[in-house]
Write a structure and sequence with these properties.
Strand order of the largest sheet of chain A: 2-3-10-5-9-8
Strand content of chain A: 15-25%
Number of helices of chain B: 6
Shape of chain B: globular
Shape of chain A: elongated
Number of domains of chain A: 2
Number of strands of chain B: 10
Strand content of chain B: 25-35%
Oligomer: heterodimer
Order of helices and strands of chain A: HHEHEEHEEHEEEEHEHHHHEHEHHHHHHH
Number of strands of chain A: 12
Structural class of chain B: alpha/beta
Strand order of the largest sheet of chain B: 6-7-8-3-9-10
Number of helices of chain A: 18
CATH topology of chain B: Rossmann fold
Order of helices and strands of chain B: EEEHEEHEHHHEHEEE
Largest sheet of chain B: 6 strands, mixed
Distance between the termini of chain A: 29 Å
């Protein structure tokens, strides 16, 4: 072997030109491979971190009745089926060792009422318990204007993206309640038109219910925010307190579950049906001993009917704080309806096998929900990430192919030029295997030296790119970056992958020239003379 | 004792649309320790005969035996090993491995054999270089040697494995007369001292004085002297 290495090493120096050509290709190939792997790794980690840790969790529980797994970015705005048994699901999740945390939420499309008389527009709304949201997705919101929502009561947090989109459709520029227009935050068509803007600090949302009725709801805007990452993509999702969400979309609210409790305790309420319904609208305390809500006012702590049932009244005439429901004391907010449950699993538990077991157990428990991966829950965007990775893979593969072709060509020429030398070696007793090893050793040395330098260079390039912290607000670039900031990442696995890819390229590239060299006969050496 | 026995050897090869009959039924025996000169004009079949005996080329028909071993039925690996252990080659163009020094070139077949220690291999190679008068050039690469020096390295390399026979195809063709004579002198000396059998081709009548036996080839047929 030492003889082979000696000959190989000296041959590389002897044929410096060819070595440099092949070496340069290997260097560039290895550098690009490392860079590509680093970009893909960074994107993978970025997407996982950004989407999983900020929007969806690893798995999303969706109702079995929900046909489409794509529940977040369904473009037609179809309603998501409700989950009515969250307390049971919560109990189930609490028993699962692989689950780290979870967040129930509502998700649907609501219409933004144009109080200026123009065309309305639509807005994706996520109904959440803000405290639970902060625990599930900590530090996910960057406040731009206003304040974070209060612990109880109606709240609407509007992302900058949604504000911009709504303005484009309605010419209304929303600001936080009690705030003043900050012209430095104007975006899109609003820039330079501060004087013409219709500025409002509360929004009327109209939800379309399953029974084909509509409920409008005025909500004060607590704050304008940016999502920590992928704000351009997820910036259309406004956050609404869950009870307001339920009311707007016509889902079962927690305070309505309280009605059910009270109805069991006090059958007098049902006794009123058909006889004294008008009493419901009488002064509090006058109707069969049941405290009724004052119209347009906040529901009392023992209210049996939500104060916000004000259908038919123009929303512009209502008090935004009083319009929406507040959380009933003694009633768990979790008893109402949701659409989804975002589930974060413990590190290393998000495998397909774990998901299959989890789903089987969910089915056995008869909870009426199934778990889907975050990629499926994101529909085309989840696939887009895979597509971008695929495109990068194809690009790197094409580079490999070109590199392989050039190396094959160069090594083939080298083999043909050395026919006499190889034939002479064969004539004096070198076996085909010796010739093959000699060629392999030459290529391996080039691959090791130049490829190694290429990997180091590629790794340094990744570090340099990461240090630049390139940012973009472009949706496609954000997907490519895996977030707002481009953060390519070089890991041991990427280096190993680059080494394996390099070895593969080297082996594939050397096969044909090696066969050619092994096929040289002593007779060819004599004839070459 | 006959070292080489050849019977009815023919060798045909295609050249374009025609078939060239390079050897047309050669019967030949060469004794151990002989120093044989193969004479003949260009195209007479000298090189083809040497190539077939040296297992570099295959016979079309006939039998070729070296030390009683039939060559025509051997596979590639077997003939490679035969070339390594029993045969020595000296080519017309002093074929040496360009990236190895004189010593390393001589060591090359011994390293392929893997039978001796590295120290023994080095010792034996340096001894043979000394025998051909190249001790002071042992660290030189072929490109740093003259034609005669390179051919002497080739002789040392051919002899270092103690082969049964050394085949040399016009070993002096590219050398001046003085250098060529010195090469032939070395071959004769090795033949005398080591009893190594030499078979060399030439079309130069001046080299006949070195040969014990002269075999003449014409149009692929033998004319023994």
């Amino acid at each position: 072997m030492r003889l082979i290495l000696t000959i190989a090493w000296r041959n590389l120096w002897r044929h410096r030109g060819q070595s440099l050509v092949v070496g340069t290709i290997l260097f560039l190939g290895a550098a690009l491979m490392t860079l590509g792997n680093g970009v893909i790794s960074g994107m993978d980690r970025g997407l996982h971190k950004t989407i999983v840790q900020s929007f969806t969790g690893d798995w999303v529980l969706v109702p079995d009745a929900q046909e489409d797994d794509n529940v977040f970015l369904e473009m037609m705005g179809r309603a998501i089926e409700p989950i009515q048994n969250y307390p049971d699901i919560k109990a189930f999740l609490a028993e699962r060792p692989e689950i780290e945390k979870h967040l129930p939420m509502g998700k649907n499309l609501a219409m933004v009422f144009n109080e200026d008389g123009g065309m309305p527009t639509f807005l994706y709304v996520l109904g959440v318990d803000f405290a639970a949201y902060a625990r599930m997705f900590p530090e996910n919101l960057t406040l731009i204007e206003g304040h974070l929502p209060p612990p109880d009561g109606p709240a609407l947090m509007l992302p900058t993206g949604a504000r911009k989109e709504v303005h484009q459709q309605t010419n209304i520029w929303f600001i936080p309640e009690g705030g003043v227009l900050d012209t430095s935050h104007l975006e899109g068509e609003a820039v330079g038109r501060a004087g013409d803007l219709s500025v409002k600090d509360n929004m009327v949302l109209m939800g379309f219910n399953q029974d084909n009725t509509a409920t409008d709801l005025r909500l004060p805007i607590d704050g304008i925010f940016r999502y920590r990452a992928l704000n351009s993509l997820f910036g259309s999702f406004a956050l609404v307190d869950i009870e307001s969400y339920r009311q707007c979309l016509g889902y079962l609210r927690a305070d309505e579950t309280a009605i059910v409790s009270l109805s069991h305790a006090d059958s007098a309420l049902f006794a009123m049906e058909g006889e004294n319904l008008d009493d419901l609208f009488a002064d509090p305390g006058t109707a069969a001993g049941v405290e009724g809500p004052a119209l347009g006012g906040k529901p009392s702590s023992t209210a049996t009917l939500p104060a916000s049932r004000q259908e038919g009244m123009h929303p512009a005439h209502r008090d935004p704080r009083g319009d929406a429901p507040t959380q009933e004391k003694g009633v768990s907010i979790e008893s109402g309806a949701y659409n989804l449950v975002a589930v974060a699993v413990k590190p290393g538990q998000a495998s397909d096998a774990s998901l299959a077991v989890f789903n089987a157990d969910l089915k056995d428990a008869g909870l009426g929900v199934r778990a889907v991966t975050w990629k499926k829950a994101l529909g085309p965007v989840g696939s887009m990430a895979v597509l971008i990775k695929g495109a990068l893979f194809v690009f790197v593969s094409l580079l490999f192919l070109v590199a392989i072709l050039i190396i094959i060509n160069t090594l083939t020429m080298a083999a043909m030029e050395r026919t006499a030398e190889i034939g002479m070696m064969r004539a004096i007793g070198a076996r085909k295997g010796f010739i093959g090893l000699m060629f392999l050793a030459e290529t391996a040395m080039l691959a090791f030296t130049f490829g190694g330098l290429g990997i180091l260079f590629g790794g340094s390039l990744i570090e340099a790119l990461a240090a630049l912290k390139l940012t973009s607000e472009n949706d496609m670039l954000q997907l490519f970056y895996g977030g707002d900031t481009f953060h390519p990442l070089i890991q041991g696995g990427d280096i190993l992958l680059a080494v394996v890819q390099l070895a593969l390229v080297t082996v594939v590239a050397v096969i044909y020239p090696l066969i050619l060299a092994r096929g040289v006969t002593p007779l060819e050496a004599v004839q070459t003379e | 004792m006959n070292l080489i026995e050849i019977k009815g050897l023919t060798k045909d090869y295609p050249l374009g649309r025609t078939m060239v009959h390079a050897l047309r039924g050669v019967d030949l025996t060469i004794a151990k320790g002989d120093l044989v000169s193969l004479m003949g004009p260009s195209g007479s079949g000298k090189t083809t005969l040497l190539n077939v005996i040296g297992c570099i080329d295959r016979a079309t028909t006939g039998s070729v035996k070296i030390e009683g071993v039939e060559l025509t039925e051997m596979g590639d690996r077997a003939v490679t090993d035969l070339r390594l252990h029993r045969l020595g080659f000296i080519f017309q163009t002093f074929n040496l491995i360009p990236v190895l020094t004189a010593t390393e070139n001589v060591e090359f077949p011994l390293l392929l054999q893997k039978e001796l220690s590295k120290a023994e291999i080095r010792k034996r190679a340096e001894k043979w270089l000394d025998d051909v008068g190249l001790t002071e050039f042992r660290h030189h690469r072929p490109s740093e040697l003259s034609g005669g020096q390179r051919q002497r390295v080739a002789i040392a390399r051919a002899l270092v494995t103690n082969p049964s026979i050394v085949l040399a195809d016009e070993p002096t063709a590219n050398l001046d007369s003085v250098t060529g004579a010195s090469i032939l002198e070395i071959m004769r000396e090795m033949n005398t001292r080591q009893e190594t059998t030499f078979l060399f081709s030439t079309h130069d009548r001046n080299v006949l004085q070195y040969a014990k036996t002269v075999i003449k080839l014409r149009d692929g047929r033998l004319e023994q002297e």
